[in-house]
């Protein structure tokens, strides 16, 4: 699951040498473009609608394009507070997940024990649980523990749901740091924790970045968890406030909805590009993302 | 005092503790709580909210008699089979194969379009899909040109709309998996078959597919599990309606628990979903172990 996607090997190079281009590549282009257009159509509405003060459901070139929609949602209550809440939730989740994953990955990567394999497979099993299925019981649990409407508790829950994948990824990244580098540090008198902090973690910084961004993107886009666990409006992240906005003003303000959606999506799109470009290993992300 | 090997072993694994506590409290805890709560009449508000009573298997008996439950189970199977196993899986493989034949610039651009729908926050993707299928939406604009009268697809064909929307949203995952898998097919093998006179379809069926069958199995499992858990897309597009015509199990569990305030019954539905997920999860683990020599 870790093979890089970006490397392209020509399909049987010898045949390509004979004919120049592969047979049928023109219709391959055509079919791909058609599929690509189908995938872009729903997004086109989002972009055009955000620039059209009189937007409806229809996709059309705005008669009088402008940034009125963006200006209309640029208010603290509508935009900044929900986005700030999203940031706190996502960054908090990323930090908690990363800390717990690094701590757990160290013994799993560095020591041999009968405990490792069952633990890793148990964790993998955890990633298979449909998170939406446990939201009703989680709500019940939060009621009993009086944790409902608490952002820190929501962060802990989101961290728990992303931990299994984060531990897998972090352990794989840690496995790729050779033990010898660490041993050299011990010879120089560093403790295990010291070597972890000063040698191992800096070496796996790109990997840790990928894990953090992956968890961040998931938490940023999550709707159902904060929708169930956070009740008061001033604590809800953008995913939930956008939904209530839609329910209240949706029928009249599609343009504003589209503008809001775009502003809310830009951070994760940027982070994804960063990971896909930077590590050149989109599979690390693809293998880990789930619904 | 020198520590015994056993004590040392325990100390060494101490850093795993925070992760284990989080997983036990927030994942294993709710699952166990679900089994227990599904045997009570716990409610969202009122008398039974504070003091739920033990009702045994009553919720499950209700489940067996409730006409909505088999409908919902069938819709979930339809949703998973249509959008994940057929839609995302086959379209993802087709995209990956086509991308190797098309011009690099074309395949890069189309790849970006497919991935964009997948990277967007789920609520935004759901709004875009809602607008696309609504009465004066893009789909009707296109079909109108062909002379098809305006239809409110979200009412006329809610499941078809949800399936298509989920294919649009999730195909990128399968595409990425298969692009990586196709890179692992040895070029010499394809070339040898070509020399022997095998056509493109024969090469695909007898060489490519057998070589990547491990990836196919893994991908099928993962998209099934992901699709089983889809809630937001359907909730925003149809909210399960009209008249339960698109109520998959996650939507049903949510409705029973939070709309009708019957936590006990909602948890029973959720438990069924957890068990289905666990069965697929166990099958997935088996598959992974078999693939490892």
The domain tally of chain B reads 1
Return the structural class of chain B: mainly alpha
CATH fold assignment of the largest domain in chain A: MetI-like fold
CATH class of the largest domain in chain A: Mainly Alpha
CA-CA gap between termini of chain A: 18 Å
CATH topology of chain B: MetI-like fold
What's the helix-strand series of chain A?
Answer: HHHHHHHHHHHHHH
Oligomer: heterodimer
Report low-confidence residues of chain B grouped into runs of 5 or more: none
Features:
heterodimer, A: 291 residues, mainly alpha, MetI-like fold, 14 helices, 71% helix, globular, disordered N terminus, disordered C terminus, B: 293 residues, 16 helices, 76% helix
Fold blueprint:
The complex is a heterodimer of chains A (291) and B (293).
Chain A: H1 13-19, H2 25-50, H3 68-73, H4 76-110, H5 116-128, H6 135-144, H7 151-175, H8 179-187, H9 192-203, H10 205-221, H11 224-229, H12 238-249, H13 254-278, H14 282-286
Helix pairs in contact in A: 2-13, 4-7, 4-10, 4-12, 5-7, 7-10, 8-9, 10-13, 12-13
Chain B: H1 5-12, H2 17-37, H3 47-50, H4 58-65, H5 68-101, H6 104-119, H7 122-133, H8 138-145, H9 153-156, H10 158-183, H11 187-195, H12 200-211, H13 213-228, H14 232-237, H15 249-259, H16 263-291
Helix pairs in contact in B: 2-16, 4-16, 5-10, 5-13, 6-10, 10-13, 11-12, 13-16, 15-16
């Amino acid at each position: 699951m870790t093979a890089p996607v970006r490397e392209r090997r020509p399909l049987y190079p010898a045949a390509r040498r004979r004919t120049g281009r592969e047979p049928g590549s023109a219709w391959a282009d055509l079919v791909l473009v058609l599929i690509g257009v189908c995938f872009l159509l729903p997004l086109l509405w989002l972009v055009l609608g955000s620039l059209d003060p009189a937007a409806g459901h229809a996709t059309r070139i705005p008669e009088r394009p402008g940034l009125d929609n963006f200006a209309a949602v640029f208010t603290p209550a509508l935009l900044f507070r929900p986005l700030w809440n999203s940031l706190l939730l996502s960054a908090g989740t990323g930090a908690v997940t990363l800390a717990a994953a690094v701590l757990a990955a160290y013994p799993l990567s560095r020591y041999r024990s009968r405990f490792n394999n069952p633990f890793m497979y148990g964790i993998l099993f955890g990633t298979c649980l449909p998170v939406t299925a446990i939201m009703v019981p989680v709500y019940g649990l939060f009621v009993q523990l009086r944790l409902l409407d608490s952002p820190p508790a929501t962060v802990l829950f989101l961290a728990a749901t992303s931990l299994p994948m984060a531990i897998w990824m972090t352990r794989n990244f840690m496995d790729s740091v050779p033990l010898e580098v660490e041993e050299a540090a011990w010879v120089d008198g560093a403790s295990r924790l010291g070597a972890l902090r000063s040698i191992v973690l800096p070496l796996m910084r790109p990997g840790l970045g990928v894990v953090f961004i992956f968890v961040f993107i998931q938490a940023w886009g999550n709707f159902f968890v904060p929708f169930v666990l956070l009740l008061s409006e001033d604590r809800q992240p953008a995913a939930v406030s956008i939904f209530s906005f839609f329910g209240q003003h949706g029928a009249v303000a599609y343009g504003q909805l589209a503008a809001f959606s775009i502003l809310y999506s830009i951070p994760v799109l940027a982070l994804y590009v960063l990971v896909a470009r930077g590590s050149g290993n989109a599979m690390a992300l693809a293998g880990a993302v789930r619904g | 005092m020198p520590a015994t090997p056993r004590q040392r072993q325990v100390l060494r694994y101490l850093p795993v503790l925070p992760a284990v506590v989080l997983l036990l409290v927030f994942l294993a805890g709710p699952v166990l709580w679900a089994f227990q709560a599904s045997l009570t009449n716990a409610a969202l508000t009122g008398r039974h909210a504070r003091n739920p009573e033990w009702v045994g298997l009553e919720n499950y008996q209700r489940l067996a008699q409730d006409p909505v439950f088999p409908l919902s189970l069938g819709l979930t199977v339809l949703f998973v089979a249509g959008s994940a196993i057929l839609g995302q899986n086959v379209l993802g493989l087709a995209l990956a194969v086509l991308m190797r034949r098309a011009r690099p610039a074309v395949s890069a651009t189309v790849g970006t379009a497919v991935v964009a729908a997948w990277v967007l926050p789920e609520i935004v993707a759901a709004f875009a899909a809602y607008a696309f299928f609504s009465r004066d939406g893009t789909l009707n604009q296109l079909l109108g040109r062909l002379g098809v009268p305006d239809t409110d697809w979200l009412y006329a064909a809610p499941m078809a709309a949800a399936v298509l929307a989920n294919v649009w949203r999730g195909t990128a995952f399968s595409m990425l998996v298969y692009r990586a898998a196709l890179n692992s097919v040895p070029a010499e093998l394809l070339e040898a078959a070509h020399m022997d006179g095998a056509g493109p379809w024969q090469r695909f069926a007898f060489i490519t597919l057998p070589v990547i069958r491990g990836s196919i199995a893994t991908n099928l499992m993962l998209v099934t599990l992901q699709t089983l858990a889809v809630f937001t897309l359907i909730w925003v597009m149809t909210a399960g309606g009209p008249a339960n015509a698109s109520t998959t199990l996650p939507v049903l569990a949510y409705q029973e628990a939070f709309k009708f305030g019957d936590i006990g019954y909602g948890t029973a539905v959720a438990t069924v979903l957890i068990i289905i997920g666990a069965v697929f999860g166990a099958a997935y683990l088996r598959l992974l172990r078999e693939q490892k020599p």
